[in-house]
Task: structure prediction
Amino acid sequence: MLLIPCPYCGERTESEFRYGGEAHFRRPENHLEATDEAWADYLFMRKNPKGWHRERWMHIAGCKRWFYVVRHTVTHRISSVYKVGDPLPDLPS
Amino acid sequence: MTQDFRLAKGGRIDREKPLRFLFDGHAYDGFAGDTLASALLANGIHLVARSFKYHRPRGIYGLGVEEPNALVETGIGAAIEPNARATTVELSDGLIANSQNRWPSLRFDLGAVADLASPLLSAGFYYKTFMGPGNAWKLYEWMIRRAAGVGRAPEQPDPDRYEHSFAHCDVLVVGAGPAGLAAALAAGRAGARVMLVDEQVEPGGQLLNTAYTINGRPATDWVADATAELDRMDEVRRLQRTLALGVYDHGYVACVERAVPVPEGRTRWRERMWHVRAKEIVVASGAIERPLIHDGNDRPGTMLASAARAYANRYGVAVGKRAVVFANNDDAYRTALDLADSGIEVAGILDLRHDLTGAMPALAREKGLRVLAGHAVVGTRGRTRLKAVEAAPVDDPSNRQIIECDLLAVSGGWNPALHLYAHAGGKASYDAALAAFVPGSSPERMTVAGSAAGEFALAHCLSGGARAGVEAAKRAGFSATQPALVLEAPEPNADTRVGPLSAPNRGGKRFIDLHNDVTEKDLRLAAQEGYRSVEHAKRYTTMGMGPDQGKTGNILGLNVLSDALGQAVPQVGTTTFRPPYHPVSFGALAGREVHDLFLPTRKTPMDSWHEENGALFEPVGQWRRAKAYPKPGESLHAAAEREVKAARESVGLFDASTLGKIDVRGPGAAQFLDRIYCNTFSTLKPGNARYGLMLGEDGMVKDDGVTARLGPDHFHLTTTTGGAASVYVWLEDWLQTEWLDLEVYLTSVTEQWAVATLSGPKARQVLGPLTDVDLSTAAFPFMAFREGRVANIPARIFRVSFSGDLSYEINVPARHGLALWQALMESGRPHGITPYGTEALHILRAEKGYIVVGHETDGTITPHDLGYGGMVSTKKDFLGRRSLGRAGMTGPDRKHLVGLLSKDPARVLPMGAQILERPTEARPAPMIGHVSSSYMSPTMKRGIAMALIKNGRERLGQTVYLPLLDGPTVAAEIVSPVFYDPENARRDG
Ligand SMILES: [Zn+2]
Result:
């Protein structure tokens, strides 16, 4: 059970949140004209790294805000959280 | 009954409080403070179990959770607890315990023939037999299921209550031995909020078991002082009988607390699960002694040396009258000395080491004990109880001498209890001098202290514990200085190195894993057969896979494998420790979330009326909804038929409060809905409503519902009952992370509105007298929305219909829901108003061909598939639009929603039935679709169905075939899915 520091509410237990998967994958610009390959890539392909991962979470049982978490998928360490529009923090080395 | 083996004095038992208990039907006496094991031993009972595989007689072997043998059944009837460790069961008056895995009796067990057949049951027996020819496995499995095993599960429901508690702390200290107490004191004095959990009945750990001194006084005095100080601190919570089961992420630790047993009667709760979130964790979980490998090492009367001395010191029990100590380390001499001090005759100390230069052997010799250096136990005698050991020089094992004894106390050194450290991701390293794994670098938030850290000397436990407590408090944000914990704990034996782990082999049975009956020979066979990884050898032999998870035997097994493979122990590796540290009951895990409390039950504001009026409920997600209102003696089917008829011919009333509702406001609201729905909402006039389809980005139908425009920038959006939460999260996702250009505010208002749907040709007559809203079709047409009062309650009325007949969906603030419902029932009485449930609702909508998301859609269905292609806007962008243009989204392979009429009107096609083109097909038969909804229609007076069939709309009029499970193949005709009123002539009443 993770302890997630919501950037709006502070530390809360994982069961208050919904997971949203990989962050910052881009919907193709002019998506109606996107190639099938580019569109399929956007729809279906996600990273599955062993290590640091930028991901999306929503504090459904709290402020109901979506935000971003940098989490290590092996140790579950959370190095940073940030809001939509914030500059992207670096991944820990 | 006398307690022949109770020492005349000593121990922490209360001799003023005798307790009587039953074991295998015989009454025995013990004292308050005993465990079942110590009380049995006080009565001279060693034999308590038959082993798992060979049914060999087994005795009490350990002191606590490490016990591999003494698994018993406690309680009777529904309160039976199988596989309880006799060593952890607190004795209480009237306790009933029974041995397991024996027939007809413990002393004479027919299953012991398995022991004679043991050559057949060697390592990998299951795998080899399973690979064998024909049906051999079936026979063997039948035998094994009966012969092998542990306790039996109780057959009645568990009558006890289990609780869950949640706690937060700065420092969690696991273990209240010397290191844990010192850590808790240090952290507590620094002002930290401390939780100290300890699995024992009282704090002290090893200080209760061994005669130590601290600051010149008995160590137990210091324990009492330390505990008293902790209990005076406001921010310290101390939990005894509480076992830390596992460490999870970010300082989350699961613990389970046992209730204090009460004579007779049950406790308020039996076990309590603690969910602890700690900023810092100090692991002071101590160490577990391990035995030595020698021939005949499972004879009852053989016991861990530390357990034998604890039974004497803590429980006042002489485990035997005449003891032999067999060891490879100095600490075992403490056992010999303590046993001798208790008045037990020590017949000799056999030490595998040749060179005994330490202080302890010298002290033992000084006290007149017989010490045999370079000697080993090479055999044991006796059947259900040890009578003698065969001792011999390590270098000349055939030169045996017989030493009569009834207790063999064995010590192969100590294993730090690193389970919690490993759960947290700690990587242990092998210390060859200790022959043990010790913690390496600390995982985040964790410090290991005391003998868990491989610091076995008492002085080190105390100082290391205090240091760990200070450091943990500091990391948790407290400014701690070194506390004034000046503790002197002189010990003669600072030497913690160990000698060999194995006695010379003279061909007898040498058990590594007592619980699972795994011998040294099994492990060597596994190595010989190519299992070079410990993880593989473990699974092949089942070493360490019993309920004790190899707490005493694993290191011995590793050393055997290391020897057989010619690799150093670290190369052989250690198996992974996973939670729980000790088996935990299902009751504790489930807590109160059983029966009615398994899931929250969401009830609508009208629920009490439904209940009082005989509703048959069904769960829909977490909601409970009225499925029908059967009259006495009426079947569900008959009730639904009556309810449908009323809603078609006069008027019905339905509780639609569970519909998901989202309030959408803001200057961007209309544009937002245009992007969300595949059809257009910006053109909707205030006061009107529209049915909308939401697609996923993959172009598939995700949810549907009616959305009304309340004002220029204000919409009332409805979702399906089941989709409410996921749609809300999804809408917020787009608003918050993608469409920052839109100013829109969403509020989930599902529970703020109660909804009653009046449906049927008389609906207007029922609602009219109650409202100030003009209900004429001209003033309030289909798909319009009006605000007004109903039964003097402020209401929003939507003229939508899910049945095809005239219908009003009346929304009022939730607290008025019941009043609204009662008013409508009263007003409808002259018209024969009939409440209807979800069963009738489904029939009504299926007659009209309306879809239900989840019935007619399954994540692979597009609007076009449903025949709703006309709704899809070609003028604007919306979620999923790009996907609708992908290959495979159109064409003759798509399944279409169609109606299906069985040739036999009385037949109701089963939902989910597969559909074939021809009555007989070669296998595998090509299936062209399936039935998605199917009912007996009271209106059409025949079975009707909806189905998804490949290219179905091009097949109207064709006959298809449904091979029914255990039944005939049924012919049906493909028709339009709209069975009732295709001209929409009835919706204005
Ligand atoms: Zn929040």
User: Anything to note?
Assistant: Residues 610-658+752-834 of chain B form a domain with the Gyrase A; domain 2 fold (CATH 3.30.1360.120). The interface with chain A takes residues 248-252, 275, 277, 425, 444, 697-698, 725, 729, 732-733, 736-738, 740, 877, 881-883, 886-887 of chain B (CB under 8 Å).
